[in-house]
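pipeline stage [seq->struct] | target=Oxidoreductase | organism=Veronia nyctiphanis | residues=389
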Amino acid sequence: MYIDEYFWIYRFQDTGVELRGDPITLWNGANLYFLGTNSRTAQSYHGNLYIDEYFWIYRFQELRKVASGMAMHKQWKQTYFSTPSTLNHDAYPFWDGQLFNRGRKKAQKVEIDISHQALAVGQTCDDGQWRQIVTVEDAVAAGCDLFDLEQLKLEYNEQEYNNLLMCQFVDDAASIFTLSELQACMVDSWTVWDDFYPLTSKPLSNRPVWIGYDPSRTRDDASCVVVSPPMVSGGKFRVLEKHSWNNLDFDSQANRIKSLTRQYNVQHIAIDTSGIGYGVYELVRKFFPATTKITYSVEVKNRLVLKAKQLISHRRLEFDSGWNDMALAFLTIHKTSTTSGKQVTYQASRTNETGHADLAWALMHALDREPLMSIDESGGGSRTVMEIF
């Protein structure tokens, strides 16, 4: 059986391919059961257990406690594999051996070297687990010719590259957003969003969408997101598409946005015009006159972050569970002070070379259309926040 963050299901009307059987039977006679990550339902079968992207699974230890029972017989094995998330994730103690040590006498506790140097070739550790770290550069060195490392370093900023491709964990202790609240926003969009057909010419029919755009800077990607706003007050925003475009001139960036207006009923476009973004804004405004320009200031940046924080903490945002890069972008944003030290603001861990959480800012540009609201402490509705500080 195979427990994944999202089901591997393909809709016949989207792909023209139908996968038959429950379970799916492979050519060698093996049966594959794809299960969800809900600890209340991920059980009852028996066999080899594979859990994918386990560093991004919500309440991993609860899931493992029940799912591991399916491979309890000695002829079965458990396999866990994932890109890293954060040091504070529920699965990290399972990885570094601290979960093994809990409740054991001092003489029974183990120390496990989880450095890349120790685990590059893989080894069986003192807790009985076989561990291995394989980075993209390890794969290239071993003869894999599928990657262009220089291009990957252009497509991902330094922190994203290290996390997604070099197996380094993010320390989210200083982040304004936490991984646990972001995980609560990550859903299996292919099964949960039954009105969204991403491979068709009109993925959301005629329902309105908002577009947020963060233009390219130096070596940053230009990032664009398409958001479906809620149909009722207090409903959920859904991030339908995300795009990262590299090395495109103003015309090409504007044309990519224009192509989205042909697919969707676009009601709102917001573009950061602080710097070179103004050129893209002027071109987009020619075919979408209502385009909103966002000019960054301390007040504007605080408003964007606080709005996103509010939506995420109240689970009013959803995006696909496979979009680890979206979650990582939010995790890089932290609270800081202005140069004068007189005001609090927010920024991402960035330089011109490393990027600045492009996807998160693009999404926040789109979300900025809804007024900043806060939940009344009495539970009796909401009120508009007139002052941030």
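stage status: PASS
auto-comment: The chain has 15 helices and 19 strands. The first strand starts at residue 2 and ends at 3.
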